[in-house]
């Protein structure tokens, strides 16, 4: 049989361009142990080579670093240092560790810039440790990661769909449920509390980035226990607010919001945005860390439902971590990519992808807004056109 001739323009028949040839040459050099040793000693390449060595080791050791942080959180190390530096004897007694084990933890934490060792041998908070004190939701996520690490123990099986039921899919019961509205009350407490704690991280950033005060009524879809709605109520005293989430979550939101004295301002409604018509009348609808939890078909159904419920001339505001964020690519593409895979639903999308989906759902005037911390959330806004006169 005659050998098959590759068609012009096919991958097999195409001659590699200069970029591909240079990349192949460069990769071959970098992969060479002899070149690595030379680059680590040559003055012009020494810094790059050592930085790459450190980066590769950090990738290998990342789980250990995370466990050091978990130990600090569980032992409440940062709060113990909140009032000032302490010596190893006092710290060890407070942590319930013998001095040598306490020193091992403190040195590890210092190497990760969570604490710092002072010249007199005492330990004090470093910037990252101090930031942990101001963000208790981060500690909640660190504790929560035990489930994620368990699900990622065989990442290849997870990618191939051979891992079976994951702990995260049980933790987020709505993710793969055919009837999200039927989720039982006892199954929502943990994840609803976690979402409330972590949503506080971005609520003010979203309110800073978009002028909600120019609207009359806001509908917060998938609003959880009402952290964002509460922040919006305090920021915009003339804004009418509604919240829609699964019935047991909405019940928790209603109780929490009433305890904050905002029960008259925020109407908490129970229902699934996949199973029922959305409340109408709002001229701004928010989806704060909701769209990325759902696969494309469900996400499009949600966007179309929001378009139908939105008042003409109103806006839909999507706020969540997004793929392709400069300087934060690992957050969406690595962390959320595998977290949502383990959860069983959803993916991080870029602003361009969300814009295309919004356009497909009927929105116009689509734009991306800057936020103070784009690593945590970026914003894409679309508008429903006014009805023709």
3D structure, described in words:
There is one protein chain. With 389 residues, the protein is α/β, with parallel strands linked by helices. The protein folds into two domains: 33-134, Winged helix-like DNA-binding domain superfamily/Winged helix DNA-binding domain (Arc Repressor Mutant, subunit A); 150-383, Vaccinia Virus protein VP39 (Rossmann fold). The protein is 50% helix and 12% strand. The protein contains 16 helices and nine strands. It has helices spanning 18-31, 33-41, 46-74, 77-80, 88-95, 99-111, 127-134, 136-151, 155-159, 167-171, 189-209, 227-235, 247-259, 296-309, 329-343, 351-360; strands spanning 115-117, 123-125, 217-221, 240-245, 266-270, 284-288, 315-320, 364-369, 378-383. It has a seven-stranded mixed beta sheet with strand order 5-4-3-6-7-9-8, with helices on both faces. Strand 8 and strand 9 form a beta hairpin. The longest helix has 29 residues, at 46-74. The termini are far apart. The relative contact order is 0.08.
Secondary structure elements and pairings:
Elements: H1 18-31, H2 33-41, H3 46-74, H4 77-80, H5 88-95, H6 99-111, E1 115-117, E2 123-125, H7 127-134, H8 136-151, H9 155-159, H10 167-171, H11 189-209, E3 217-221, H12 227-235, E4 240-245, H13 247-259, E5 266-270, E6 284-288, H14 296-309, E7 315-320, H15 329-343, H16 351-360, E8 364-369, E9 378-383
Helix pairs in contact: 2-3, 5-6, 8-11, 11-12
